[in-house]
Design goal:
Number of domains: 1
Shape: globular
Distance between the termini: 24 Å
Number of helices: 1
Number of strands: 11
Helix content: 10-25%
Radius of gyration: 14 Å
Structural class: mainly beta
Strand content: 35-45%
């Protein structure tokens, strides 16, 4: 797949994820010292196949995926389903359906479903200014 085809695919995936995640929600956006960046989530969100792999890292003040080909992507996690344990440096997503939770620690090789974007995220918790500005919206 060429670079432009991949960019179109990831942009389409990101748009689909944002549309399915209830982008019209008007809950207040907050900031925090927590490295987990969150997006608002609607009840109709659908998780697709794992399309992004790399190492879970801290990039600036945020958790990010270090993909060799695409560089660092700030991971945008689902609000209400994601928890961060600062002591163990572990993030967890609990899904509302019959699926094992996603659990990973900084330094782990991981795979995440979702799409890449640089804008259009319905933030629940915004990334800090020192985080990568390309986002991986995951579920």
């Amino acid at each position: 797949m060429s670079g432009s085809e991949r960019a179109k695919r990831t942009s389409s995936l990101a748009l689909l994820l944002l549309l399915l995640s209830g982008c019209g929600n008007s809950a207040p956006v907050v900031t925090t010292n927590d490295p987990v960046v969150l997006r608002q989530l609607g009840d109709d969100f659908v998780v697709d196949d794992i399309a992004n792999t790399g190492t879970l890292v801290m990039a600036g003040s945020c958790l990010a995926l270090d993909e060799d080909a695409d560089g660092l992507l700030t991971i945008v996690w689902p609000e209400g389903r994601t928890t961060w344990d600062a002591e163990t440096q572990t993030v967890r997503i609990d899904y509302p359906f019959d699926r094992d939770p996603f659990v990973a620690s900084v330094g782990d090789e991981i795979g995440l479903a979702g799409g890449q974007t640089t804008s259009g995220v319905d933030w629940a918790v915004k990334p800090a200014a020192d985080c990568p500005t390309t986002y991986l919206v995951t579920g």
